[in-house]
Write a sequence for this structure.
């Protein structure tokens, strides 16, 4: 099966399940909570969950599918709260929850989603000891995600973030929930601890790679392709891995912290390409993908394992 | 044992446990998360949890004490987020989390506390099926609490809140977590479903009574005694049960929505006393306490049951 076909099918399934779970709720707060859930995204985390479960025990994902929803709901909760903190007004092409309603409702909508995540885990049809271990993993992962968001915000006022700090931040902010998606799928499908652990590491590594790739895309992809404001990270002086590696080599990007012309952006790209920075950072992202994939060697060959490898590579091959 | 002695002892125990669980954490976010946990309050919810557990199975509370912490941590999470929403700058005599740090950190600190609640439930030493049922109860209760806070905020812009709406709001906002405290204590101690359910109802009813009593105290207690700005609810036109019952009897309190002199406050009290409103609302609070206590008849007699009855009565006997 093609990866895109699998993702499309999972996305449809997840959306239908959310509709069947929550569409009867009519209060303002439930509307705000459901708002982003009902925007069909790539649903990469539920896909990872399902692939992990099926790679461990074919046919297992049906009984534990609410675990996949738990991960997606947790992801959505973090988006709603992050958008408040970051003052972002648009998400997935729609105004953010705190813009459509207001900040208090957005705080509560995130809280409701987070509460639902644990109820969804309790709703999976497996033995309770696996469910309670899933609760523990999701709870601890959520603490890490909050810590990652806090680090990300704290970095905004610093100019000396190290590569190790950056990697720890993106591991917690992004990697941990991808890791949790795979780990919970495997755990609830009955996997042994070493396989659960392998999926946690796999997700963390490809999540780190995803964020590094985001940094590369921001700089190198034309706005017409990426849909994002090109080189905004440089303009804002953001502590990306590119900026950090450049600083390590004595390249000062601070003179570019202003509105940039196309010529200036090309100048920066040339500067960083010539210094080997872009190649180095690209190689770092690829190395995280490779080590993630290597960790899956513990699994027997299957279509699902193949799709997991493709997801990993997709995280850095995507152009936007 | 005297109730105050029991509460003091529980409060000390809970504070020591929080210190042993979380004091090693040194990040800004963990400091913000721990800030309110470390202010010793009455710890009424952990006391309810312990009394419920011990009334069901003497000696049981030791193995499940982290469940009591889970409830207190959930309570603290709601305080941190509510203070942001309500713009409150002081809590338990100290500046609120969003004042000491900032709003983004306060949002995250609340989220971390909420995540910890579920990890703490997973940490109790009982069979997993009871733990996962506890997770489900706490998750659903948290959704209710958010809904209660949203109703409370929505009522601020209305002048036609019914008594039924008010009672539903205070049940969700306040009652449900008292109910959860007792229900989880009983459940994790091994109680049968009808006893777990009795504790949920008990907590909901005494929580409703607590809120009604708050409304009475606001109006009738001198600031010197209550520490609160007397009659602020009337000044602000708040939809309390007193205001709602007055409106039902055709008494218009809107002319008093301004800074009030002592004479005006006495005038309002006389007006409402003469119309029988204060006696009626006081009787409603007592009725909730009585029905809560009646529900405990399912339990065998014990010191713990006696203390539960005293807590219930304390909720409306307190002067502030």
């Amino acid at each position: 099966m093609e990866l895109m076909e699998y993702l499309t099918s999972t996305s449809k399934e997840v959306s239908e399940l959310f509709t069947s779970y929550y569409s009867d709720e009519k209060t303002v707060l439930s509307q705000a909570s459901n708002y982003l859930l009902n925007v069909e995204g790539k649903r990469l985390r539920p896909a990872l969950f399902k692939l992990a479960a099926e790679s461990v025990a074919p046919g297992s994902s049906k009984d534990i599918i609410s675990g996949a929803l738990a991960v997606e709901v947790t992801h959505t909760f973090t988006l709603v709260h992050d958008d408040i903190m970051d003052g972002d007004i648009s998400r997935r092409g729609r105004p953010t929850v705190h813009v459509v309603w207001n900040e208090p409702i957005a705080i509560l909508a995130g809280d409701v989603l987070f509460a639902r995540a644990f109820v969804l885990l309790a709703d999976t049809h497996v033995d309770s000891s696996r469910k309670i271990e899933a609760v523990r993993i999701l709870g601890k992962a959520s603490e890490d995600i909050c810590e990652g968001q806090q680090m990300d915000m704290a970095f905004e006022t610093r100019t000396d973030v190290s590569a190790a700090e950056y990697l720890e931040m993106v591991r917690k902010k992004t990697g941990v929930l991808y890791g949790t998606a795979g780990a919970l799928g495997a755990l609830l499908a009955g996997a042994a601890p070493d396989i659960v652990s392998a999926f946690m590491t796999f997700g963390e590594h490809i999540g780190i790679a995803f964020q590094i790739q985001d940094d590369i895309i921001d700089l190198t992809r034309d706005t017409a392709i990426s849909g994002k404001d090109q080189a905004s990270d440089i303009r804002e002086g953001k502590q990306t891995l590119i900026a950090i590696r450049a600083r390590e080599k004595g390249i000062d990007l601070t003179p570019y912290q202003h509105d940039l012309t196309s010529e200036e952006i090309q100048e920066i790209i040339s500067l960083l390409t010539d210094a080997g920075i872009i190649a180095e950072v690209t190689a770092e992202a690829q190395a995280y993908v490779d080590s993630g994939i290597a960790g899956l060697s513990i699994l027997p060959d299957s279509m699902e394992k193949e799709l997991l490898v493709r997801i990993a590579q997709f995280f850095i091959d995507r152009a936007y």
Q: What stands out?
A: The first strand of chain B starts at residue 90 and ends at 91. Chain B has 15 helices and two strands. The radius of gyration of chain B is 20 Å. The CA atoms of residues 86 and 153 of chain B lie 8 Å apart.
